[in-house]
Write a structure and sequence with these properties.
The protein is of the alpha/beta class and 247 residues long. It folds into two domains: 67 residues, Ribosomal Protein L25, Chain P; 168 residues, Alpha/beta knot. Helix content is 34%, strand content 25%. The strands form two sheets. It has a seven-stranded parallel beta sheet, sandwiched between helices. Strands 1-3-4-5-2 form a five-stranded mixed beta sheet. A hairpin with a 4-residue loop joins strand 3 and strand 4. The relative contact order is 0.15.
């Protein structure tokens, strides 16, 4: 069954209306017809089975048949990701959504190759959020991660001060194996876990010191040097396996 995303503001108790982008995808790409039954989700845990009642040139209206609600994950995974060069952030956002991240915080690091002005930051964030929506539609999750505004590491740590565990992945000395840190932390009642993944060339010494003074645990992802996107996927996969629903 095809899934459509509808922002929570587009719902009533009995019907939903598709935004232009979803309307175009459903009618021009999927070529759905009036009377077809589809699934509709709002990215905040609500999903409905709905029937297409009317397709016009400007929009699609659907009537709700039944609704299910899924509570948020018991453990929130927050990815604080230094921006890599090129389009690799798009892959990271897609895979982070599939792996159950609840929040993605893009960070311009001191060693960053990619630099964005304010307009490009807003445009990129909008695009990354759309990628998260598309990934959620495909993988079946009912919760879409929020892509936060691009910021520096200090701003990201300030915004995520309520994290119960902060994992700082980097290549320098003094790290501990990720599995060792997680084994020790498993006895704690963790509700929000942050994963910091650095850029090409790793975090700067200043950024590492900043994270450690904020209580981060310095961790290693193993003996091999991973690309930025691989490190993000690897770290989130381990956290999803350890703390999210294994069913």
């Amino acid at each position: 069954m095809h899934r459509c995303f509808v922002d929570p503001g587009g719902w009533t108790s009995s019907d939903v209306s598709l935004a232009p982008e979803e309307h175009h995808h459903l009618t021009k790409v999927i070529r759905a017809a009036e009377g077809d039954v589809v699934s509709v989700f709002d990215g905040r845990g609500r999903e409905a089975t709905a029937r297409i009642e009317k397709i016009s040139g400007t929009g699609t209206s659907l009537s709700i048949i039944s609704v299910e609600n899924t509570p948020p994950p018991e453990v929130s995974l927050v990815l604080i990701q230094a921006l890599p060069k090129g389009k690799r952030t798009e892959l990271i956002v897609e895979k982070a959504t599939e792996l159950g991240a609840t929040t993605i915080v893009p960070v311009v690091s001191e060693h960053a190759v990619l630099r964005l002005d304010s307009k490009h930051r807003a445009d990129k964030r909008e695009r990354w959020q759309r990628i998260a929506v598309n990934a959620a539609r495909q993988c079946g999750t009912r919760w879409i991660p929020e892509v936060r505004p691009v910021c520096n590491l200090e701003e990201a740590l300030d915004a995520e001060a309520a994290l119960d565990l902060v994992l700082l992945g980097h290549l320098g000395a003094g790290t501990r194996p990720l599995h060792e840190v997680l084994e020790e932390a498993s006895a704690r009642n963790l509700r929000r876990i942050g994963l910091l993944v650095g850029p090409e060339g790793d975090w700067s010494n200043n950024e590492i010191e900043l994270a450690l003074t904020r209580g981060a645990e310095s961790v290693s992802f193993g003996p091999r040097v991973l690309r930025v996107e691989t490190a993000a996927i690897f770290g989130l996969s381990i956290l999803a396996y350890g703390f999210l629903d294994r069913g």
